[in-house]
Amino acid sequence: MFAKPLGTDAELRPLEPWQAEEFFAHMERGREFIGQHIGFADAAKDLESARKLLQGYADKAAADVGRIFGIWLDDELVGGVLFRVMDIPQGRAEVGCWLEPAATGRGLITRAAKVLIDWAIRERGVHRVEWLVSSANAPSIAVARRLGMSRDGVLRSYSLHRGVRQDVEVWSVLAPEWES
Q: Where is the N-acetyltransferase domain (predicted)?
């Protein structure tokens, strides 16, 4: 297993099914905060579903269509980043993220997403990296901006989250923009 430093206070590591208990405990700490805008927290409602979620990403990694990584701060899992979707033949990937409230305001998501985007573009030849975000999720939109992404548009009333329709903004960065 590898660990990629995210400065001096945190590191990025693959998040695997054998870590389901730690992942579930993390989700329990941040469930309501994380679940405000994304369904990820609701998908890990108990230990079995947390393990199933991580196994799903292990299967995606094996098929080269997705990946999931945790962010550890002082050796405690506090969030993560992922390739929700990777389409290497088409040169596209979608990055996503989550973070529990105690870890916000430190730039962890921005640092971790930079590692993923850099790897996707430089190592895997991805041409377009996307960031889909609820229009109501101002912190995530701020990360997209810090990453140098451009707002492509809004998918109006695009997704249903906890019974409420959400507008979803599409942000992206292209390989030539990232490399410059």
A: 10-177
**For the whole model, what pTM was predicted?**
0.95
Reading the block at residue 110, the tokens are 């921005």
13-179 fold: Aminopeptidase (3.40.630)
Which pLDDT does position 1 carry in this prediction?
53
Say which residue the tokens 């140098």 belong to.
148
Using a CB cutoff of 8 Å and minimum separation of 24, what contacts does 45-52 make?
Answer: 47/20, 47/21, 50/20, 50/21, 50/23, 50/24, 51/17, 51/20
Torsion of CA 25, 136, 152, 69, to 10 degrees: -10
Structural domain boundaries of the chain?
A: 13-179
pLDDT digits (tens, 9 = 90+) for 122-162: 999 999 999 999 999 999 999 999 999 999 999 999 998 88
DSSP-assigned beta bridge partners for residue 85: 94
Q: Are 44 and 68 in contact (CB under 8 A)?
A: no
**Residues facing residue 77 across a β-bridge:** 72
**Whole-number Å distance between alpha carbons of 9 and 109:** 13
